[in-house]
């Protein structure tokens, strides 16, 4: 058995002074078959530790139903096999540009602003989550023959609240569940954050992207002793749909890393390897000082301009970081080989079916209520909901008012597309005579993952109005998208969307690729039944990463759900990403 302890201003591993050189790599953003390669890349960059969050919503998607816990344990075991120590951050809130900051949608729908507080009902849910997850981490601590050296309490809590009793409860609960290695907190390097998010007797660390000297000086004002550590060195950044691709100069990032280490501090690169927000897992942000302004949804790629790119290849930032880190962790192993990607290919689409003709296979049962039920009311985390409501008549045309769309809606009047509505967008002036049949196909995007807007609901947040009159008696039909059933495709490709389109990609052997849909609008892509994620011609992301484990030798089914505009009946496979 081994020991990892805090001794004054230093970490000690088995009695020897130890500097933590860590990199963030989230097991839930990388397919398990690729963990070994990515972990090897961390070692080759010169790191000795890997850090990961644990997303609550991934493991308890429905209350009391736990799934995929073997992925957490498998990842920690794979890191140990690669010779890497581990830092685990089980939340219960993680942020991470992940949907709802990792809090399950059913939880926040039930409790609202009571989450992340001492509220007894919230804590009972946390206890159930910890009962399942924390013992798996505890049995992999270095003190028990594993590789876990630190466990984080909550995440950047000083950016959110000031409930010290809540933080103390989490601390005590982690210890009661067997955590023996040092507990830590991480917050921004400001009085505001450090007074709200730290816990007496628990190591405090800071998060920043630049000016490490000032950040550590601020930490020392609050914690005169203890090891210095940057738990999140933001060496890149993430992207939002409709906004520019964010990058950071490699030389500038390497200079900041050098200054962190020259200060005698430990570090965790956020991110060392970003990976992908597969499916509907990407989060969203709200702009402004109070994080309550304009809504911006995060793209599918989580490349993050990290030193190891989305496909696992070393970037210029990787080589510069490796040079810096070699002065503190000499003789890193060779860089693992990355096999060649798929050759360029054009894949014809040979079958299709309109969404409305596939509802029997796709959709859940209809629910009728006085007011529009939200996605959460319908038990749907993400996907589509088809709302239907009648305009009474006869009556002359009046303005139709549709507010509170979370997040995008196609409005049909008597079967004809009348408008596309977007959250935060300008509401079109649309007059409708009665009687009329209205349909709103509402699509959810990511839930806000940071700030006071955490826990938002999806769907229609307000009833439809005809002039000043509410339209009551709404029918809603949920359409989940994660697990795609067999659909009744036909050989004819319709001009009318929304529709599913199908094609087959032939490969000689599985390899990575990047999928593009030039000329298409907005939608979703599945490869052999696995939902890659969302695409949108709004950019900046133009390609979706297709990892090799999703493919098989021979024919591979690719399915597209297009909501806005179908382009030429073909998709493209290329060897490189286009992220903007």
From TrEMBL:
Keyword set, alphabetical order: Glycosidase, Hydrolase
Stretches assigned to the Beta-galactosidase galactose-binding domain: 498-556
Record flagged with keyword Cytoplasm: no
KW Hydrolase (keyword) present: yes
Its EC number(s): 3.2.1.23
Residues annotated as domain Glycoside hydrolase 35 catalytic: 11-327
InterPro entries assigned to the protein according to its UniProt record, in alphabetical order: B-gal_1-like (IPR026283), BetaGal1-like_ABD1 (IPR048912), BetaGal_gal-bd (IPR048913), Galactose-bd-like_sf (IPR008979), GH (IPR017853), Gly_Hdrlase_35_cat (IPR031330), Glycoside_Hdrlase_35 (IPR001944)
Domain Beta-galactosidase 1-like first all-beta: residue ranges: 372-479
Gene Ontology terms, MF aspect: beta-galactosidase activity
UniProt record similarity statement: Belongs to the glycosyl hydrolase 35 family.
Name recorded for this polypeptide: Beta-galactosidase
Organism the protein comes from: Nonomuraea africana
Classification of source organism: Bacteria, Bacillati, Actinomycetota, Actinomycetes, Streptosporangiales
């Amino acid at each position: 058995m081994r020991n990892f302890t805090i001794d004054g201003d230093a970490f000690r591993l088995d009695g020897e002074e130890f500097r933590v050189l860590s990199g963030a790599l989230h097991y839930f953003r990388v397919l398990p078959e690729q963990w070994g390669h990515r972990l090897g890349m961390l070692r080759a960059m010169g790191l000795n530790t890997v850090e990961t969050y644990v997303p609550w919503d991934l493991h308890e998607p429905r209350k009391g139903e736990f799934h995929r816990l073997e992925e957490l344990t498998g990842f920690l075991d794979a890191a140990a096999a690669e010779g890497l120590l581990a830092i685990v951050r089980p939340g219960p809130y993680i942020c991470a540009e992940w949907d709802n900051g990792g809090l399950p949608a059913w939880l926040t729908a039930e409790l609202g602003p009571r989450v992340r507080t001492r509220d007894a009902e919230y804590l009972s849910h946390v206890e159930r989550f910890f009962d399942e997850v924390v013992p798996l981490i505890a049995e992999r601590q270095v003190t028990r023959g594993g590789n876990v050296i630190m466990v984080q309490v909550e995440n950047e809590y000083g950016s959110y609240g000031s409930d010290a009793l809540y933080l103390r409860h989490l601390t005590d609960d982690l210890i009661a569940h067997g955590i023996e290695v040092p507990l830590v907190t991480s917050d921004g390097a400001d009085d505001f954050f450090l007074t709200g998010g730290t816990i007496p007797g628990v190591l405090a660390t800071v998060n920043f992207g630049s000016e490490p000297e000032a950040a550590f000086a601020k930490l020392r004002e609050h914690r005169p002793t203890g090891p210095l550590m940057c738990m999140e060195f933001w060496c890149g950044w993430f992207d939002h749909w409709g906004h520019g691709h964010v990058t950071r100069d490699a030389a500038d990032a390497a200079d900041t890393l050098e200054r962190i280490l020259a200060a005698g501090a430990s570090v965790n690169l956020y991110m060392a390897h970003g990976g992908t927000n597969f499916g509907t897992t990407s989060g969203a942000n709200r702009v402004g000082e109070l994080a309550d302004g304009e809504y911006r949804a995060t793209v599918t790629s989580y490349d993050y301009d990290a030193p190891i790119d989305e496909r696992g290849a070393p970037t210029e930032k990787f080589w510069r970081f490796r040079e810096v880190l070699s002065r503190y962790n000499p003789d890193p192993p060779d860089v693992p080989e990355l096999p060649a990607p798929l050759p360029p290919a054009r894949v014809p689409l040979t079958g299709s079916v309109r969404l409305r003709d596939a509802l029997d296979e796709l959709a859940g049962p209809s629910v009728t209520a006085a007011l529009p039920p939200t996605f959460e009311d319908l038990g749907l985390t993400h996907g589509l909901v088809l709302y239907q409501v009648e305009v009474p008549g006869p009556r002359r045309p009046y303005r139709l008012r549709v507010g509170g769309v979370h997040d995008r809606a196609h409005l049909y009047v008597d079967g004809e597309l009348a408008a596309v509505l977007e959250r935060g967008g300008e509401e079109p002036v649309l007059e409708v005579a009665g009687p009329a049949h209205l349909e709103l196909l509402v699509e959810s995007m990511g839930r806000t993952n940071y700030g006071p807007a955490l826990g938002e609901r999806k769907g229609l947040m307000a009833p439809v109005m005809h002039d000043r009159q509410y339209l009551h008696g709404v029918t809603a039909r949920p359409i989940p998208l994660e697990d795609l059933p067999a659909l009744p495709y036909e050989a004819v490709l319709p001009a009318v969307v929304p529709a599913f389109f199908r094609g087959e990609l032939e490969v000689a052997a599985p390899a990575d690729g990047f999928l593009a849909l030039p000329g298409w609008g907005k939608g979703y892509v599945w490869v052999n039944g696995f939902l890659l994620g969302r695409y949108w011609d709004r950019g900046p992301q133009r390609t979706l990463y297709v990892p090799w484990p999703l493919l098989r030798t021979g024919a591979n089914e690719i399915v597209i759900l297009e909501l806005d505009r179908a382009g030429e009946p073909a998709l493209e496979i290329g060897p490189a990403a286009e992220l903007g």
